[in-house]
Amino acid sequence: xxxxxxxxxxxxxxxxxxxxxxxxxxxxxxxxxxxxxxxxxxxxxxxxxxxxxxxxxxxxxxxxxxxxxxxxxxxxxxxxxxxxxxxxxxxxxxxxxxxxxxxxxxxxxxxxxxxxxxxxxxxxxxxxxxxxxxxxxxxxxxxxxxxxxxxxxxxxxxxxxxxxxxxxxxxxxxxxxxxxxxxxxxxxxxxxxxxxxxxxxxxxxxxxxxxxxxxxxxxxxxxxxxxxxxxxxxxxxxxxxxxxxxxxxxxxxxxxxxxxxxxxxxxxxxxxxxxxxxxxxxxxxxxxxxxxxxxxxxxxxxxxxxxxxxxxxxxxxxxxxxxxxxxxxxxxxxxxxxxxxxxxxxxxxxxxxxxxxxxxxxxxxxxxxxxxxxxxxxxx
Amino acid sequence: xxxxxxxxxxxxxxxxxxxxxxxxxxxxxxxxxxxxxxxxxxxxxxxxxxxxxxxxxxxxxxxxxxxxxxxxxxxxxxxxxxxxxxxxxxxxxxxxxxxxxxxxxxxxxxxxxxxxxxxxxxxxxxxxxxxxxxxxxxxxxxxxxxxxxxxxxxxxxxxxxxxxxxxxxxxxxxxxxxxxxxxxxxxxxxxxxxxxxxxxxxxxxxxxxxxxxxxxxxxxxxxxxxxxxxxxxxxxxxxxxxxxxxxxxxxxxxxxxxxxxxxxxxxxxxxxxxxxxxxxxxxxxxxxxxxxxxxxxxxxxxxxxxxxxxxxxxxxxxxxxxxxxxxxxxxxxxxxxxxxxxxxxxxxxxxxxxxxxxxxxxxxxxxxxxxxxxxxxxxx
Lengths: 380, 380
What we know:
The structure is a homodimer.
Chain A: E1 3-5, E2 10-13, H1 21-27, E3 32-37, H2 39-43, H3 46-56, E4 60-64, H4 73-83, E5 88-93, H5 95-110, E6 130-135, E7 147-151, E8 157-161, E9 169-172, H6 182-201, H7 207-229, H8 234-254, H9 258-269, H10 274-289, H11 295-303, H12 312-322, H13 338-345, H14 351-356, H15 363-374
Parallel strand pairs in A: 2-9, 3-4, 3-5, 5-6, 6-9
Antiparallel strand pairs in A: 7-8
Protein name (chains A, B): Alcohol dehydrogenase class IV
Keywords (chains A, B): Oxidoreductase
Cofactor (chains A, B): Fe cation
């Protein structure tokens, strides 16, 4: 056995922890904090309340919330500008807010444009700004991963990757996730569960990541349905949030696989929620995947409470049914055919997820999967 | 539920990883490395081989190995002096080597004497030297904990505690532990297992620490006997080493309990191996402890492969038998009686471990436990 697990940031978990952001910032000796926060959270007054907490600790702050959807180059540029001159970056929101905050914390110290670091063109600065991450969706695991994604000038997805992007402190506050609508709770929860599943079963899977991935599967598999159906059940919300955080640690070490190849390929065609796209990709491939019948697939199935990997396809479809995930694509996908999706699935940037999949994916397989996805109704 | 888990360093696991120390040091951009290494390892040529690896990377190095037994003030002073002017500290050896290295990495940047930081008299420097820890015994978990212990000028145990003492990178190389004699393998392994058990079951136990502690119990409980009986079984050695590392993470968050109260109290009387003392303390108290019958005690028992906490006393005694742990104290304990041990168990520095124990420990209980220990033969 041989493995490496990247460092895991300090993690604090508890209801109403968002009231301790100011004290946490003071713990880093911060004097000027830059806050990247989802627009609707800022409008709800949360940005002002955080600013007041920071002011109570003698910390000046400013915030950036002029973004929506997946991060674009102009968002990460504006956030970098806002963070320049600060000594701490705080990200509060979904994966986009956290990704923007992580990039800004790196670029603000070096003065370089985010494009300078995209696709590993140059090494990241060794001493980025300190970062506190407060996820308000349970999905991307961005709070514990070294990955960020944004859309480049030509509309392509670009990555900035490196331990320098990782959080120093993660605050997990289930109460912050309670207002997330049911469909987003389900989509994000599936994304997190699939992170854990793919990290635990792909070709890069190892003991160190499986420790976190299996715990994530236990937590999310046991609580996602309740979190969707009973939005105020903070215990269930907390389990999904914690599971998402563990899943982030798992993908930080072992990456993902075929379901994420498909979801990134879909995003290359038209805007679609990443969690929904990943769930659709997962359901479309899990029956094919479990034919590999590896020890890792069976162990992941057991972590989900199943007897064996062969039960996974019906488990996945059943959980999608019970959490109300409609098998459909946004209307923006009208006009794209399966050949278009297959081409995206074969695009260079999506090959790591194809190659890491435990079964070899032939071009014929890609054609079959693309057809399954693109025959879904385009009605969302 | 509410908890905090401190950061976990990057962990690399694999046979012969000690051959990658030079490359790991280069990864930190080091130019001058200070090596704290057990004397017998240095004499075996390991220090020279590490120095050659470092030289291959253009890194100058010096080493300190003039210590034996538990660290004394002069050892940490000499190591600090050696590390001053370096930009990286590497600790290779048992818990003492790692503790000395961790202290030196802090004091070398500030120029302060180790006594300046003892018992939290002053805050540690915010930016200590980078630290690579390479444990060669599977026991203390010092490679993942924030604690260091040394003996002060008046012979008292002193602590330096803080996240600043923690490793940046841990290299776990089972091959390095293969020459450890059977009795030390057993003593250190019990120490690690008890770390995990106490962290998972004391009053401070929480979800975040139990994740690591239960895994440590699974690993050590399943492999310790083989590691002792088949010293060249690197798979078993590796499981105990990894378990010890996880147990270090667990105590880093939740601390220990009664068995460590007793082992520290014993060390206050006369020199005794910490692992042996802890095992003796554990066996003497586990029957009393499990009467509490808490959910945590039962969960820890299950992680050890048992049905319930009530099976723990016979499990512990059986494993001590099978790993050849003699129930005896060193001859240096002749002349001390149970009142002397009871007084140490009630000493202020040992009260945190008394208070954290899940059952209240009366002065009467202390008298009973001290009598059990001090009636052991003093023949080692």
